[in-house]
Amino acid sequence: MRVASVPADHVYIRHLAPSGHDDGVVRLPDPPSEEPGRWWPPVMLDPEWVAAHSGDFDLMHIHFGFDARSPEDLQKLADALETAGRPLVFTVHDLRNPHHETTELHDAQLDVLVPAASELITLTPGAAREIEHRWGRKAHVLHHPHVFELDEVGRVRPGKDEFLVGVHCKSLRACMEPEPVIRAIVQTLPELPGAQLRVDAHTDIMTPGYDRYDDDLATYLRRAHADGLLDLQVHDYFTHDELRDYLRSLDLSVLPYRHGTHSGWAEGCHDLGTGVLAPDCGYYADQLDCFVYRWDEFGLDVHSVQSALRSAYDSRGNHPMMTSAERRLQRDRLADAHVKIYSAALGN
Hints:
The structure is a single chain. It is built from 13 helices and 14 strands. It is an alpha/beta fold and 348 residues long. It has two domains: 163 residues, 3-Layer(aba) Sandwich (Rossmann fold); 160 residues, Glycogen Phosphorylase B (Rossmann fold), CATH 3.40.50.2000. Strands 2-1-3-4-5-6 form a six-stranded parallel sheet, with helices on both faces. Strands 9-8-7-10-11-12 form a six-stranded parallel sheet, sandwiched between helices. It has a two-stranded antiparallel sheet with strand order 13-14. The radius of gyration is 21 Å and the shape is globular. The chain starts with a strand and ends with a helix. It comes from Yimella lutea.
């Protein structure tokens, strides 16, 4: 089966292929985009591309990359696929877009893609229930595959005395509001002997003159660092190896998200044995075993952050970690499940 995968060059999609055999699925490489070396914006979402290349693929599978497409554009895409006789499979990763401040655009995009898809996939039972409630559609629930390579998964972690908590501000996606969470952690650390807080932030939010510069956050973090309350690390995006080593150094990674749905970051932590502290919004706690605090767009429950942090501290060294063999088996089962879903979409 030839799949126009949108995208193909993404760790989630790459790890849907079986680990050691050929499942007969060929995912087309991403056509060159406007930005050399990147898969976005995805060319395959252009109805003209579909019309010109319908003989090159049997079905389209959309994961990511439709953020910048209007609902009208997506409807034209759905119409082009129908005209070409090519079914659509859609994995609903996000029911709330982490890059959007408001829900209206993403909801309108989903209102096109979900009804248009022959088959739907999502990552958690909670998300599947919401999909059925909102659109009356059943979605296959398939777990997120491993994020790091199989030979990096499940390695024995080095022993240490300190308990290192990490908050990564990244480039402040719309779903992120790290300062209140960081303040709650800082207040709690004195109760936890050996506990330390490391805060990472990308250069663009810490440097005046950059589009994403956040003066309030930058000022607070630099002051807290100077006062010895936290260890601030400012840098550009991690490489793969840097991200792996960073997560392996942490005992607990805190997700400062006030909305969202699922998390590849948390899944990477699970690969490496790093604990996760996640908010109760979205379906993070439905996705994997993690510590949970209460926070949504209406406010942060500081006491829940502190209570969850104490629980994580008390259970340090016992966080869930997938073994390489478990991830390999899971990956092969995911590959088999996708073959069945593709065959159903094609009427086979």
